[in-house]
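Sample entry (480 residues):
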Amino acid sequence: MQYNVTVIGSGPGGYVAAIRCAQLGFKTALIEKYDTLGGTCLNVGCIPSKALLDSSEHFHNAAHTFKEHGIDINPPKVNITQMINRKAGVVKANVDGIAYLMKKNKIEVLAGVGSFIDKNTIKIVSKDGKESQITTEKVIIATGSKPTPLPFAPFDKKRIISSTEALELKEVPKHLIVIGGGVIGMELGSVYARIGSKVSVVEYLDSLIPTMDLALGKELMKSTKKLGMDFYLGHKVTAVENKGKEVVLKAEPKNGGAAIELKGDYCLVSVGRRPYTDGLGLDKIGIELDKGKIPVDDHLKTKVENVYAISDVVRGAMLAHKAEEEGVLVAEQIAGQKPHINYNLIPGVVYTWPEVASVGFTEEQLKADGKAYKTGNFPYKALGRARASMDLDGFVKILADKSTDEILGVHIIGARAADMIAAGVTAMEFRASAEDIARTSHAHPTYMEAVKEACLAATPIDRYTCRVNVFNLSGCVQPA
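Predicted structure, serialized as tokens:
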């Protein structure tokens, strides 16, 4: 079988690359070793975790806020079996949708593990051990990533678990210990905290979600403490042991102090993910990994002619939407087009509640680079829409160039931040100034008004004098 383009891996990067290649007229094959398409994101990552996050938010609201809204119900109970079953249904609908798109775009899906014989020949080994070969002009590697275990605490998938097992628990943990205060740890930790688990988060660094602006991590910790979550920042885990029905974790402050011991029924290890390149046979085509990742140039080409790599196996953040952009970029390059990705404008999102979203430079990065900047902040508690919905935690933070007023970073924690960040990305793609957004009409009352108000706060005082009260009744007048 001869193809113009063969994609190995059917996650967001892979299936989007395959679809775009097919749309551009290439005969395309997609190789996937699992029974369903969609990769980690659709099967055991983005989609199922969001399904559980939504379910847990509904339960938490029913238990804690309905009464304030004038809705009286009997105390709700968690049906974890139904919660997990609903999640499974959401996953199935999504992966079935990907299978449909493959048929619609006439992409041939080849089931099995793909590996290189040479740069134009791929061997495929199916689950039953049968081998076949295809030839291809070009290859796109999109095999994604796997959870990283701790060397002294390998996943036993019973008590010491990864995010995959955390999405399939048969019971609500009494005490869930989470190692890692990043995106995955905070999302899944908040799921179980909302439905009744005691959750303890142990993080080596001194901030939650440490890759984001530090102000966001501080606000997120303040908000999630209201769920009863406990935090041990700046702690190094030294031991994790499965005692049968109990997990014992030992940790010590990295800067010295008394060690701690935590006992729980489950321990979620969420210290990151590693690129998954096992079994690809990269050595047969002369590709050597660099710190576990496949080296590529600015066009995502490997050192081997006509072999590309995208998504989690290459440099950059491990994000589904980053992978999708890269899949489109490679497909269009193969077609002779000249696409472009601004990696600084790939947003990051944490789907806790309040949500956290960020794009562009953090304040810490600007300080380290010696960049002259200014800030504008606006709290959700001063927002009419947020007051109406009782979502008062959070703020919008705008970073702008001190001299040109160009927006350099948008950082949001609060209700609907995941959707709002798209406006920040759009503004920065067009190199908008804070004043541009401040002068743009925003519907009232909306959460997006907080972005406008933060931009007003960042706008030079000689251009505006603004008055804002807690009900978001603002008036801006030209200075006399």
